[in-house]
Amino acid sequence: MANIEKLKIPALQVTRENYIAWSTNVELHLDEMNILDTIREGNESPNHEKSRAIIFLRKHRDENLIHDYAKVKDPAELWQALKERFDNHRAITLPHALDEWANLRFLDFQSVEKYNSAMLRIVSQLEYCGKHVSEEEMLNKTYLTFHKEQYVLAEQYRNCRYRRFSELIVALTIAEKNNQLLIKNHNARPVRTKAIPEVNVMVVKNPEKTDVQNPERGGQTYRGRGGRFNRGRVKYYNPQGRKSFKWVRSEQNLKARKQKVMPPRSVT
Question: Superkingdom of the source (predicted)?
Answer without folding.
Answer: Eukaryota
